[in-house]
Amino acid sequence: MIRYSQIAIIGCGLIGGSLALAFRSHGMVDRIVGVDLDEEGLAKALALGIIDEGKTCIEEAAAEADLIILAVPVQQTIRQLATLKSVPLKKGCIVTDVSSTKQEICGYARMNLPEEIVFVGGHPMAGSEKSGVTAASPRLFENAAYILTPDASCDPLAVEKLRRTFEQIRAHVLVMPADQHDSVVAAISHMPHVVAALLVDQVADLGFDNPLYARLAAGGFRDVTRIASGSPVMWRDIILTNRGPVLQLLKDWVKRTDAVIKWVEENESGSIESFFARTRDWRDALPAKAKGAATHYYEITIDVEDKPGIIGHVATILGQHQINVRNIGILENREEVNGQLLLSFSSYRDQEDALYLLLGHGYKVYVRE
Predict the structure, then answer these.
(1) pTM of the model
(2) What is the 3-state secondary structure (H, E, C) of the chain?
(3) Domains along the chain?
(4) Of the ranges 92-106, 130-144, 252-266, which one carries the lowest mean pLDDT score?
């Protein structure tokens, strides 16, 4: 079992606080020191028992740490690495970060940090619609992909120690080069955010003088654009530190949009139908063949009436029969009458048992392929 005497977490927000709670809940650390300029946030972290000591200065916290985690936005990560250059760290100390882009940060670390400082880039692909240390959870990283991006000069023993560290908090660790990481997340995370923001921007302009757009913007529109509610500052930094892959994808997006424009202008019904069929088939295959980098889930949807207590009733039925639900979601595909619950399970057996149990209670239930 991996265990640390002292961990320094720079940035006591959702991710930093959740890592602290996860390490503590798994008995992996004796002492956690949190660093943040927000003294109110530090006080909350102390009051909640997330950290043992709070500081506003990284130098003091880092000097005695066995593991230093930079849980701050991308640009702040680089500034903190610049500060660490002159801090005498303990022998064997590992430094890592949690940023969504890796090439710029890893490149800076490689070119600027002394050889004795071991830096391994990291990116936990986990989050929450809530922010701040009060939203921290020890289970945030369970079954989530946690990517490490060491370069060729990284000590393999340090990389292995860090891999085992995050596996102990039940994350699924993947190791890959920084450039490969940035190309993949640009397509599956950064580009979708840009597209969602563009859709919101378009509808916002259309609805400037017509309140019907805002009134009817529910169901599919809300589902597709949910991620546009993220932090503007954070996403500005993410896009600008991953310019190459994002620009390449944006230019490809323009080409694909031009093709759709041509099909519509020239009434090419076959091309349009083939486009929707191809994209539907690939998307529908994801749950069965590629349910994310972390794990495979088995899902069902349930038609439910929109009334108080309905989610609790469904959960109680399953709980009484020892069926573990990994996640519950609400699909807003209908307005004001009925809706659908999305339930995720870790095993085919749980999915099947839940299906027949809920059918027996009169619910309309569908397997999500």
Answers:
(1) 0.75
(2) CCCEEEEEEECCCHHHHHHHHHHHHCCCEEEEEEECCCHHHHHHHHHCCCCCEEECCHHHHHCCCCEEEECCCHHHHHHHHHHHCCCCCCCCCEEEECCCCCHHHHHHHHHHCCCCCEEEEEEECCCCCCCCHHHCCCCCCCCCEEEEECCCCCCHHHHHHHHHHHHHCCCEEEECCHHHHHHHHHHHHHHHHHHHHHHHHHHHHHCCCCCHHHHHCCCHHHHHHHHHHCCHHHHHHHHHCCHHHHHHHHHHHHHHHHHHHHHHHCCCHHHHHHHHHHHHHHHHHHHHHCCCCCCCCEEEEEEEECCCCHHHHHHHHHHHCCCCCCEEEEECCCCCCEEEEEEEECCHHHHHHHHHHHHHCCCEEEEEC
(3) 4-176 (3.40.50.720), 181-285 (1.10.3660.10), 298-368 (3.30.2130.10)
(4) 130-144
